[in-house]
Amino acid sequence: MANLLPSSHEVDMKFLSTTIIFSLSILLLLPNTSYSLHQNPKNRIKTATFLSESFEMGPGSIAAKTFLNIEFPEGHVGVKSFDAELVDEEGNSIPLYETYLHHWFAIKYIENITMSHDPKLRRTDDFAMERNEGMCNENILPHYWGFGVESRGTTSHIPDPFAIEQGNRINIPKGYKEKWLLNVMAIDTRGAQDKKGCTECRCDLMNLPKDFYNVTLDVHNQPLTTNYKGGIFCCQDNLQCKQRDGFQGSKRKVSLRYKISWVHWNKHQVPVKVYILDSTDRVRSNGSQIIHDCQAEYTIPTNGGDDSLHVQKANIPMKKGGYLIYGTTHMHSGVVNATLYRQNGETLCTSTPKYGTGDEPGNEKHYVVGMSVCYPQPGSIKVHDGEILTVESRYKNEFRTGVMGHFYIYLAEELPQQY
Ligand SMILES: *[C@@H]1O[C@H](CO)[C@@H](O)[C@H](O)[C@H]1NC(C)=O
Ligand SMILES: *[C@@H]1O[C@H](CO)[C@@H](O)[C@H](O)[C@H]1NC(C)=O
Ligand SMILES: *[C@@H]1O[C@H](CO)[C@@H](O)[C@H](O)[C@H]1NC(C)=O
Ligand SMILES: *[C@@H]1O[C@H](CO)[C@@H](O)[C@H](O)[C@H]1NC(C)=O
Ligand SMILES: *[C@@H]1O[C@H](CO)[C@@H](O)[C@H](O)[C@H]1NC(C)=O
Question: What is the rounded distance in angstroms from the CA atom of residue 206 to the CA atom of residue 197?
Fold first, then answer.
């Protein structure tokens, strides 16, 4: 995760081959009609569905891919939602018990418009990641949108008149163009000896290279130790999770299908800022500055006691506050819920999982198929500048590797005048 942005040598723009655009102009029905007053009737919400490049997956295979220069709405826009799922070549939704969607992240970057055509002559300055507002350090959790297994059932929709502003030319350095990349990790668990272990990226289930622990660097750029039992570093591209003997299954091409809805930016839109708070953030101070140290994932140790719950907690100072417009989480199987508290102890948002009960994609039994979303009445909750928020992610207390507790919040620094 620390090195999501590919080196300039790897940059080879492959424009996406297949694009399906539905130019529907739908005005979403909103729960509270008073907001529709802010929606200029001529500035309709547009929706388009795109398909990432495809990648091949067979039983037990791991795919960890980065696709550069993905299709994204052109121009100065306000994004209202961004949803994604895995599909096969025919465009059918793939169920999670066949291919587990560990995560997809949509990350913004800028690219030098006049950089050399020869990848060998490109400079590191030709690319730069443009991360969200925080609060993690450096390249950790830099994305604007991203979920995993819970993707199909977690709404990313932002109520009017709020939107995530993108493509504003005054924010793009001269000589650069704003682009988007997708980082996708998927695990084909067909035929796996231990499906659950594979989805948790257990190292001892993978055909790791011999020198794995000597050459693989963790989030702090230190070699992994053999104490690392599982997580994103053991789910490397093209690795294979242990299979049952004699299992037969075919290879197939898989893509991430993503659907974006947006409006052209105008004075009727109110921007929200995107923050991802990590329950593993080991916040400290070096005397003059607050240092964030997000681990992005963690392990729940084998339960020695009889506590039924494992709680991971971080206290995160917000440099800048704002009105809370949206809140949800990215968590893994075993999640009980996650809560964001304000400094005085009040609950700002609790996100709870929905576990599937059937076979069909979107409702797969035992899988987390959605996380609930908080939509406070806009204007009703203001996070103050400098306020310390607490994130608590709660899982069932049983051995699990690579679990996550990422709290996504959207804050509006201003409200429309009516409020
Ligand atoms: C809609 O929003 C207005 C203005 O904030 C509020 O007074 C009203 O109670 C809301 N109505 C509903 C049905 O939530
Ligand atoms: C972009 O790359 C070209 C070719 O290397 C270089 O001359 C130019 O200065 C770069 N532009 C910026 C803004 O760095
Ligand atoms: C990997 O690290 C171990 C422990 O430090 C060491 O014994 C071993 O020789 C190293 N292997 C390689 C290939 O560097
Ligand atoms: C604290 O960290 C910041 C950012 O890394 C650095 O600029 C500053 O010099 C550090 N201050 C101290 C007292 O170490
Ligand atoms: C979250 O989980 C804890 C532990 O089970 C429980 O006490 C609490 O009521 C839950 N919160 C919500 C809002 O569901």
Answer: 10
Distance separating alpha carbons of residues 191 and 248, to the nearest angstrom: 8
For 381, the 3-state DSSP assignment is coil
> What sign has the CA pseudo-torsion 266, 408, 329, 326?
negative
Residue 418 is predicted with a pLDDT of 62
How many A from CA of 291 to the centre of ligand 4? Answer: 9
For ligand 4, pick from 283, 289, 293 the residue to mutate: most ligand atoms within 8 Å of CB: 289
Q: Could you give the CA distance from residue 310 to residue 405 in angstroms, rounded to a whole number? A: 12
Q: Where are the domains of the chain?
A: 8-412
**What's the 412 CA to ligand 3 centre distance in angstroms?**
51
- Mutate-to-test residue for ligand 2 from 120, 126, 172, 177, highest number of ligand atoms within 8 A of CB: 126
> For residue 379, which ligand has an atom nearest its CA?
1
Q: Are 122 and 116 in contact (CB under 8 A)?
A: yes
Q: How far apart are CA 230 and CA 141, in angstroms?
A: 19
23-69 residue pLDDT tens: 222 233 333 333 444 444 556 899 999 999 999 999 999 999 999 99
DSSP 116-183: -SSGGG--GGGEEEE--S-BS-TTSS--SEEE-TTGGG------TTEEEEE--GGGSPTTEEEEEEEE
CA 127, 132, 136: angle at the middle one, nearest 5? 100
Q: Which ligand is nearest to the CA of 114?
A: 2
| Span from the CA of 94 to the centroid of ligand 3 (angstroms) | 41
**Which residue's CA is minimally distant from atom 13 of ligand 3?**
211
Partners of 110 in the β-ladder: 128, 178
